[in-house]
Protein: PilN domain-containing protein
Organism: Dechloromonas hankyongensis
Amino acid sequence: MAARAPLWLDYQRPPPGRQLPGIALLVGSLLLSGVLLSMSADLGRDIEATDSQVAKLRQAAERRRLFAEAAKPATESAAPAPPASASAARWETLFASLEGAADETVTLLGLTPGLREVTVTGEARDLPAALDYAQRLQTAPAFSEAYLAKYEVVREHPRQPVRFTVLARLREAPP
């Protein structure tokens, strides 16, 4: 009698030669996943660096705009305007205080000057970073007091930063 070939059923282990393409596909998929994860991490770092550069450029543009506004004569003010050099020095102290209080966890978005107080809007990594920024402004030379007036978590953003508003009372200019 002739020898019969073994009978392979569906629920049995596949024959030894049929496993190799599946293993090759698994290894190739794992390698491709690793490459894609590495590229994703690189893109994330690039995006963070670009966001930081954009924030710095916005701050510089806002500073130039505010300097231009400060240089314009105030026509509606009832009080006599301080000399231009004193005004410029006060603005320089204000901006130095704002920049000195900021760090990599905070991005300044806007500044609204008033007669006796400044409204600062910004975005922080989280609520403790926003509170720390307000605390640093509290001790800055340009301000007599500063406090977090409003905040909200930006839920649409993947990192969920905190957008905040700080009210800072200006120190009286020395006579």
About this structure: The chain has one domain: 35-70+84-170.
